[in-house]
Amino acid sequence: MDQNEVNRDFIDEGTPFQPKRPQFLSVLCILTFISTGMDILSGFPKLLGGPLSAEKMTEQKVEMVKSIDQMRELNMESMAVMLEKLQRMLEGLNAHFYASTTVAMVVLMTGLSAAILMWMGRKIGFHVYIAYSLISVIQVYLFVTPADIPSIIIILNLLISGLFVFLYSRNLKWLQ
Fold this sequence. Notes:
Elements: H1 3-7, E1 10-11, E2 15-16, H2 23-49, H3 54-73, H4 77-95, H5 97-119, H6 124-138, H7 151-169
Antiparallel strand pairs: 1-2
């Protein structure tokens, strides 16, 4: 056995050798960096701006009622019901604006941290990402009555989160 075979698993005085990051993992992490980063960056001005005023909420509700009426005219009752729930959900989130926005920002930072850990090759990042995915789906239940949350929002969030967890799991063998 020559010296190269002995040292191929270590670089620079005993540092474990880490093979190059898989390109697929890099793509997933970059997508997560972009998504969570943009949401975090847009969240800070939102926090500074505060909740919508009663006047703005009324304007929003008037526009939503117009959309709901149009859906009913087109015999799209399920869409009308979904928009009614969406309006009540938005009102509930606005009523708990600072708490809901702060929780959302913390959850987003958790997701960003998870992606950074996976980028660095740490398996704990994958586990943190799973927690982030679940919390990001259920966080709205902390501030809004479950009856006021459109099911489609939860279903889509679960599908997207599940897809990303599955895709990240394809890279577990590289993570340490």
